[in-house]
């Protein structure tokens, strides 16, 4: 038997015989060796590849994704700050808005929501649709304005009393029982503001202003000859211009719609579509709300153009679903002098409005293109007033026309911006 040392002695050359697990001799196979080598190389390559990709995927890719997201969200954020794409109606329907986070709600609204939207409610992405337009009250249009103007020229007042607002305004009653509101001011520019704001509304075809006409306080005229004592009591001066507006009874205070109350006040087609999902309101109630909002869209544009200071705070009224735009004396002159102080309030509303009446938008585009608003206003003034009025009441100043043209252009830009963001095409 051999020793331990001899047992570990290595042969001088490799043995041609290999042994299996049962100690049976097997012959060496070159093909088998090559397959083993290839398997080892393949396994090593796969392992190396996976080892490299894991840190790339899980360490570097998130950074790249974050960089892309930051860029995209930065662009989206700018748009959201300007137009506020999030759904304002959620302030009244909190359960529903909580179901839709702001950005994801807008992203997923897309085709499904557009398909569900009714073209009769929203047209072209930024215009009120046929159903809303057809439901709007008729209001006061050119024929009614002409009738009132002719009436004032022949009217005889028999009574004058306090009413129709503040200061020296008065409520007058005519022989046939009709009534009118007289706006009297010491400052001529406030009478100009009231009158030319009314003319601007006619150019914009807004039916929301009560018929008005300008006159002069003259005790020799039939209109005033029965009111000597009342005029003296009111401390009116003779030969002062006044604006006489048709009196409208049964007015109710019109409240600001909830869609404009939040800090992020806005109105666009997504807000409109979400209002239709309110389970509490039936279709008639929903359309009625849209009728009011359509008039508000006109009001926001009108007050931006005129820089009216008082409307939203003090003087908005409802008459059989018609919003009546009263108290325009600060428009176009006095309001323009205070733009630096109050401009932000009008701009906030305008810059977050993306639903318009198509007719109003078309007129704005035409006025912007032609730049003729000054001539149109002066033509109306010259055509509708006699020499007595024109001798004591100046036409609209050039400075006001210049500012008005600038503000028309801003409204035009807002409509164009909304069209680029929300248009269906």
Task: Summarize the topology.
Blueprint: H1 4-7, E1 18-19, E2 25-26, H2 30-83, H3 94-98, H4 102-116, E3 122-123, E4 127-128, H5 130-135, H6 142-154, E5 157-162, E6 170-174, E7 179-183, H7 188-203, E8 212-216, H8 228-233, E9 241-246, E10 252-253, H9 269-275, H10 283-306, H11 311-314, E11 316-319, E12 322-325, H12 334-337, H13 339-351, H14 358-370, H15 373-384, H16 387-392, H17 398-422
Antiparallel strand pairs: 1-2, 3-4, 5-6, 6-7, 7-9, 8-9, 10-11, 11-12
Please characterize this protein's 3D structure.
The chain is an alpha+beta fold and 425 residues long. The chain folds into two domains: 84-138 and 251-422, no CATH class; 142-246, Phosphorylase Kinase, domain 1. The protein has helices at 4-7, 30-83, 94-98, 102-116, 130-135, 142-154, 188-203, 228-233, 269-275, 283-306, 311-314, 334-337, 339-351, 358-370, 373-384, 387-392, 398-422; strands spanning 18-19, 25-26, 122-123, 127-128, 157-162, 170-174, 179-183, 212-216, 241-246, 252-253, 316-319, 322-325. The model is unreliable at 1-28 and 54-117 (pLDDT under 50). The chain crosses the membrane at residues 35-59. InterPro entries: FAM20_C, FJX1/FJ. This is FAM20 C-terminal domain-containing protein. Residues 1-20 are annotated as: Disordered.
Question: What structural class do the secondary elements suggest?
Answer: alpha+beta
Number of helices: 17
Kindly state the percentage of residues in helix: 40-55%
Number of domains: 2
- Number-wise, the strands total 12
Name the shape in a single word.
elongated
The run of helices and strands is HEEHHHEEHHEEEHEHEEHHHEEHHHHHH
Distance between the termini: 100 Å
Region (Disordered): 1-20
GO cellular component, one term: extracellular space
Pfam families: Fam20C
Keywords: Membrane, Transmembrane, Transmembrane helix
């Amino acid at each position: 038997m051999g020793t331990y040392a001899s047992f570990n002695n290595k042969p001088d050359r490799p043995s041609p015989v290999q042994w299996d697990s049962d100690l049976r001799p097997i012959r060496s196979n070159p093909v088998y060796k090559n397959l083993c080598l290839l398997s080892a190389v393949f396994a090593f390559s796969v392992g190396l590849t996976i080892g490299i990709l894991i840190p790339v995927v899980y360490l570097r890719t998130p950074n790249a994704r974050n960089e892309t997201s930051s860029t995209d969200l930065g662009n989206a954020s700018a748009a959201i700050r300007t137009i506020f794409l999030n759904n304002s109606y959620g302030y009244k329907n909190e359960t529903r808005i909580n179901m839709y986070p702001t950005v994801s709600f807008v992203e997923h609204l897309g085709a499904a929501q557009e398909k569900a939207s009714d073209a009769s409610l929203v047209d072209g992405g930024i215009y009120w649709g046929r159903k809303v337009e057809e439901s709007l009250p008729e209001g006061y249009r050119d024929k009614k304005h002409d009738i009132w103007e002719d009436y004032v020229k022949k009217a005889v007042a028999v009574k004058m009393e306090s009413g129709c607002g503040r200061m020296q305004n008065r409520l007058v009653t005519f022989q046939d029982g009709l009534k009118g509101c007289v706006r009297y001011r010491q400052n001529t520019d406030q009478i100009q503001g009231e009158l030319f704001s009314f003319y601007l509304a006619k150019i914009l075809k807004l039916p929301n202003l009560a018929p008005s006409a300008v006159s002069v306080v003259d005790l020799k005229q039939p209109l005033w000859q029965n009111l000597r004592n009342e005029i003296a009591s009111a401390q009116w001066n003779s030969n002062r211009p006044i604006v006489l507006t048709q009196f409208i009874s049964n007015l109710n205070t019109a409240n600001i719609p909830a869609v404009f109350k939040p800090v992020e006040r806005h109105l666009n087609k997504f807000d409109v579509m979400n209002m239709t999902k309110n389970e509490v309101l039936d279709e008639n109630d929903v359309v009625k709300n849209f009728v009011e909002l359509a008039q508000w869209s006109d009001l926001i544009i009108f007050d931006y153009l005129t820089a009216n200071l008082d409307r939203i705070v003090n003087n908005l009224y409802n008459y059989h679903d018609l919003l009546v735009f009263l108290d325009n004396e600060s428009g176009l002159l006095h309001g323009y002098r205070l733009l630096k102080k109050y401009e932000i309030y009008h701009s906030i509303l305008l810059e977050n409005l993306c639903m318009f009446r198509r007719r109003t938008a078309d007129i704005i585009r035409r006025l912007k293109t032609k730049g003729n608003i000054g001539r149109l206003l002066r033509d109306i003034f010259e055509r509708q007033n006699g020499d007595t009025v024109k001798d004591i009441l100046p036409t609209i100043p050039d400075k006001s026309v210049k500012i008005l043209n600038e503000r028309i252009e801003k409204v035009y830009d807002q409509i164009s911006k909304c069209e680029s963001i929300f248009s269906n095409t």
